[in-house]
Design a protein that fits this description.
Length: 177
């Protein structure tokens, strides 16, 4: 009789322990990033994926997953692929914010300073955007670019400075008389 009680207790304990085991899972989700700014590149799209391990997540409230805790990103735009290692502040970033266990915001910045960008005139690619479900199991994100100013911008700036200096000199000369 004691033997059956021992076996019964062991079975119940096994069921309770097995029921409480957390199954870690790598979640991989696709996203499409569309350049919204500046105009010469507006409408250009890139495709990518982000992956993270959900083992330490509760699915309650806002939670942040960063590169050191397992966030992986692959993003291809302008024919060039960038990963989480290309983020200008790698280790602290990139970051994925989850709200109630659902991807909500992606913060991923590639800068020419740390990673060569093959597209001429593009100095930085910023995917700092809310994630919107695309209806196909993935997400869409906005992408902003930092580009080098065109030479006409410098010419305009020099023109404004030149006119300002001429006006200043004319005014000083008029006050001296």
């Amino acid at each position: 009789m004691k033997r059956w009680i021992g076996i019964s207790v062991a079975c119940v304990a096994l069921v309770v322990v097995a029921g409480k085991q957390v199954q870690a899972e790598i979640i991989t989700t696709s996203f499409t990033g569309t350049v919204i700014n500046p105009l010469p590149y507006a409408g250009t799209t890139g495709i990518g994926t982000f992956s993270y391990d959900d083992a330490g997540l509760t699915g309650i409230g806002p939670e942040i997953v960063a590169a050191p805790s397992g966030l992986m990103i692959d993003f291809t735009i302008f024919g060039q692929t960038f990963t989480q290692l290309d983020d200008i502040q790698y280790n602290a970033f990139p970051q994925l914010t989850l709200l109630e266990g659902v991807p909500d915001y992606l913060d991923f910045v590639i800068d020419e300073i740390s990673t060569p960008i093959d597209e001429p005139n593009v100095l930085a690619i910023r995917v700092q955007s809310d994630l919107t479900p695309d209806g196909l199991g993935g997400y869409t994100a906005d992408v902003n670019l930092v580009i080098t100013p065109e030479p006409s911008t410098y010419a305009g700036l020099l023109g404004i400075i030149g006119v300002s200096l001429l006006a200043y000199g004319w005014r000083r000369r008029k006050q001296a008389v």
